[in-house]
Amino acid sequence: MPHILALTVLLTLSVGRTTHAELGQLFRVVTESPSVPIRFTADGFLIWSNAVPSGPYEIQRRLTPASPDWSPWTRGTFSNQVWSARVHHPAPPPGMQFIPGGQFTMGDILGDLTNARSVHQAFVSPFFMATFEVTTQQVSDAYQWAFDHGLILVTNNSVRLAQGTNTLLMPLRAFSQEVQFADGTFSVRDGRTLYPVSFVNWFGAVAYCNFRGMMEGRDLCYDLANWSCDFSKVGYRLPTESEWEFACRGGYEGQRFPWPDSPFIDHSRANYRSSTNNFYDVSPTRDFHPDYAATRPRSSPVGTFAPNQYGLHDMTGNVWEWCWDWAARYPSGFHINRTGPENDGTLQFRIFRGGAWYTTAERVTNASRYTSARPSATVEDVGFRVVMPYRPAPPRTLRRVPN
Predict the structure, then answer these.
(1) Residue 228 bridge partners (DSSP)
(2) Residue 369, CB half-sphere, CA atoms under 13 Å: how many?
(3) Measured on CA atoms in the order 286, 292, 298, 301, is the torsion positive or negative?
(4) Cα–Cα–Cα angle for 396, 124, 342, nearest 5°?
(5) 41 bridge partner residues
């Protein structure tokens, strides 16, 4: 029988003489062996002891003391007799959510998708992920900065990297494209500044991460001369496929969609193309979302639909999201912070995830992955969001908070 720690941590932290309350959130640890809570830190670490050196645990969260339900937050396996996990971050970067990381089942255990196998166990370290998909205005601003600093070249029909082979980042004047350029200035089509960007290819998304990092004085994760990534840098980058799926699932295991209250999908939950092909698509309105069908692209403003448990909007539908990884079949076994397969020269495609306004329900599930997109592809329903690695400081200002 699982053991629940006697200490339930109310997320009210005292640092010096200042008290920070975070909506009264509560956390607890469920283990298979007796455990003893030790302390909760001002940096959001929950620390406990374990009677045995191995075995699984699950940290659960409750939003308020009055809430009747506990929700899974993160999972892991003990590696020694004293264990800790960061369950909260008091100050994530602006516009980003703290994702606690942990162990999860990756892939399609429901049998919908042949390319989302083999199902395997994966672990990702804590990281930050953007609350919303990158918007047209954000790309316009970053590309304007890059243009002003001589980092990109703009022609009548394309935006290209100024260095190296002048790689295409984004077309211009494509049908329904929202980011525009005229007289030395990037802009966004009227009324579309809060919509997710599209038509930016994988190279353009990677370049955006560096441009935005330069604007903000952050580390740069990418070398744009050879399109390599230094994962030790604390800067903007695309999520790995493992990070993306962990964040999309929001702490829950074995579900088709990010929301825990229903196994079904409809237009009240996401912007996708409804059909009668799947029993779990129960939308009373069919085809494109009726609120967005009249205008191309048929995307919706970021944040229109409810977030998942990790506070992330539009992980289901709206636009596909580029990931870092080369496309290949999942390997079996247990993987820790996997960054995808090494390219031996035979891999041609990069991954994007999450489905889009154009895709039907089987393509907007947690496990769905698109594996046939060249990194140079510029598509009307493909965008991206960014992540930033989290590098923890040692736990400090320890304080045990009683029930």
Answers:
(1) 223
(2) 27
(3) negative
(4) 135
(5) 398
Tokens, residue 167: 């790689």
Distance CA 282, CA 276 (A): 8
Cα-trace Rg, the chain: 22
Q: Which of 318, 386, 375, 385 is nearest to 170 (CA)?
A: 375
3-class state of residue 176 by DSSP: coil
- pLDDT, residue 230, reads 97
Please give the Cα distance from 37 to 25 (Å, whole number). Answer: 17
Q: What is the DSSP letter of 237?
A: B
Segment holding 188, helix H or strand E: strand 185-188
| CA-CA-CA-CA torsion sign (75, 79, 83, 85) | negative
- Token output for 27: 């956390």
**Using CA atoms, how far apart are residues 235 and 214, in angstroms rounded to an integer?**
10
pLDDT at 382: 98
> Among 76, 73, 48, which Cα is nearest to 60's?
73
CA 149 centroid distance within chain: 30
C-beta of residue 234 within 8 angstroms of C-beta of residue 240: no
Single-letter code of the amino acid located at 222: Y
Q: Are 288 and 357 in contact (CB under 8 A)?
A: yes
pLDDT at 170: 98
Q: How far is CA 387 from CA 139, 168, 250, 256, 271, in A?
A: 15, 23, 15, 23, 23
Q: What is the pTM of this model?
A: 0.92
Query: Encoding tokens for residue 218?
Result: 């952050």
* CA 155 vs CA 17, 160, 179: distances in Å: 57, 8, 14
Q: What is the pLDDT of residue 81?
A: 64
Structure confidence by residue, pLDDT tens digits, 317-358: 999 999 999 999 999 999 999 999 999 999 999 999 999 999
Q: What is the pLDDT of residue 43?
A: 80
**pLDDT value, residue 82:** 64
Sign (positive or negative) of CA dihedral 210, 351, 186, 270: negative
CA distances from 378 to 146, 235, 320, 354, 403 (A): 20, 25, 12, 17, 53
Q: Which helix (H) or strand (E) covers residue 74, if one does?
A: strand 71-77
**Strand ranges (E), 291-334:** 320-326
Counting as low any pLDDT under 50, the low residues of the chain are: 1, 5-23, 394-403
Q: How far apart are CA 321 and CA 363, in angstroms?
A: 12
Helix intervals (H) in 103-235: 136-148, 202-216
